[in-house]
Write a structure and sequence with these properties.
With about 475 residues, the protein is of the alpha+beta class. Helices cover about 25% and strands about 20% of the residues. The longest helix has 17 residues.
Length: about 475
């Protein structure tokens, strides 16, 4: 393949160049590679790799810079993931939840009795809202050998609870050390063994390891005022490993991006993955652009709602973002302590959208149950008109006619009711009758306050008044 276009020399086995699901075209590939080259050159990055994932496949791979042996990195070169490790730990915890082994509202002390912050819940640890200290009460843990779990737990104290649990977002590496230990105890094996067996192997992520092994990049810091390098240390982080220990190739990180976008491979149910991608907290105000779900960082950009995670360890930077709505993702890995532009992965997505925007799915007619078809049309919440539409698979959509107000889709249940999927009506029940809709006691009628419908409070009829 043409390296000048930034295409991988070793594409995935199922890559189809003649398919819109295959690799990107030459113009897009050139623009993507140019953006990557700008960052590597302008920010003096020893080596950097990036990939675009589309419809579950690695559609583009680019690499700039060189490894210690003078060769260019490939899709199989390992870099350290840093905090992307947290998302893998979170998936393991959610699997335990789905099996009934724990509840997200469980206090941590139920599973780790010696933890000083025992009242903090599992959900709060997952979303960094437990109030725990960001870093452990040890030496700089990213640059020194770590303690075993019992040693770390012995050092933690109530002083490491910095905020009231649930009060605010406060990123905590310590919290994920606790989650890793908790998951390991419930599984009866070290957390990493469970992650390998239950997540990495089913997804085919065979390059992911906890310590560097060939082929891998060496982590460096670049001097701010000279073009010289400092080799960064690398150690086993011990009990802190769930916060940032793992290494991966770009090819396997691309598979993880596909997972976050919805290609779960049976590791999680689609509903559980969607739950992880829901914002549990935001960290930049009311009109949020950055937030956190359950083990997933979240951001909004150019109309996209992205989920994934960033990663940083001495000598390495990494990011993975995925857009489930568009089934597209982006990844990058670099062997530098600092310097890669924060905007790089989003810029790559923007370039893809500019050169190869996804075409809307073709509309096709769908069969309709006559009884459901009769429900469609205008309904009124009091005097306000709403429109009910029938969607495929017996789903319903209810939205204000003027576009402003509460709107939701509703999924059918086996008992003949529907459940709200988003917004104000998420989780609420819709019941339908020929003359009215009931959504958790709110009655919608065919005409404004129809006196023939069971409107709570009664309807006396409309009247004209004048002064």
């Amino acid at each position: 393949m043409d390296d000048a276009l930034g295409l991988t020399a070793h594409p995935p086995a199922d890559d189809h160049t003649d398919s819109p699901q295959g690799r990107v075209g030459p113009a897009a590939a050139r623009a993507l590679l140019r953006r990557l080259a700008e960052d590597q050159s302008g920010n003096r990055v020893p080596s950097i790799v990036a990939g675009i994932v589309r419809d579950g496949r690695l559609a583009w791979f680019g690499a700039r810079g060189h490894l210690d042996d003078g060769t260019a990195p490939t899709p199989d070169t390992r870099y350290r993931l840093g905090s992307i490790t947290k998302s893998l730990v979170a998936v393991l915890v959610m699997r335990l939840r789905d099996e009934g082994r724990l509840d997200l509202l469980d206090p941590v002390g139920k599973h780790l009795p010696e933890a000083p912050a025992g009242d903090v819940t599992v959900a709060q640890l997952l979303s960094h809202t437990g109030g725990l200290s960001a870093e452990p009460p040890t030496d700089w843990w990213e640059r020194t050998p770590g303690l075993p779990a019992d040693g770390l737990l012995a050092r933690l104290s109530p002083d490491d609870l910095k905020h009231r649990p649930g009060r605010r977002f406060h990123y905590s590496n310590v919290g994920y050390a606790l989650l890793g230990e908790l998951a390991g105890r419930l599984r009866g094996v070290p957390w990493l063994s469970a992650v390998r067996e239950e997540i990495l192997q089913p997804l085919g992520m065979r390059s992911v390891i906890d310590r560097p092994a060939p082929p891998h990049a060496t982590g460096y810091a670049v001097h701010p005022y000279a073009d010289v390098l400092l080799r960064e240390p690398e150690h086993d982080a011990g009990a802190m490993a769930p916060a940032g220990q793992l290494w991966s190739s770009a090819a396997d990180l691309a598979r993880w991006a596909a997972f976050v976008a919805g290609e779960t491979g049976g590791v999680l149910s689609a509903d559980t993955l969607a739950e992880m991608r829901e914002p549990a907290t935001v960290d930049d105000g009311d009109a949020w652009t950055s937030g956190y779900g359950l083990g997933m960082q979240l951001t909004r950009h150019a109309g996209r709602r992205l989920a994934g995670h960033t990663g940083s360890m001495p000598g390495f930077l990494a990011t993975v973002w995925a857009d489930p709505a568009d089934r597209v993702g982006v990844v990058y890995l670099a062997n530098v302590t600092s310097g890669v532009s924060r905007s790089l992965p989003l810029d790559l997505l923007d370039i893809l959208a500019e050169h190869e925007p996804r075409l809307p799915e073709q509309w096709r007619p769908s069969p309709a149950d006559p009884e459901l078809l009769a429900l469609t049309g205008v309904w009124h919440w009091g005097p306000a008109p709403y429109v009910l539409r029938l969607l495929p698979d017996r789903m319903l959509s209810l939205a204000p006619m003027n576009g402003a107000g509460r709107a939701s889709r509703f999924a059918p249940r086996d008992d003949g009711t529907w459940v709200g999927l988003e917004g104000y009506y998420a989780g609420e029940t819709l019941r339908a009758a020929p003359d009215h809709l009931d959504i958790n006691t709110f009655v919608f009628t065919r005409t404004p306050y129809d006196p023939q419908a069971p409107v709570p409070g009664g309807v006396d009829g409309w009247e004209h008044t004048s002064e």
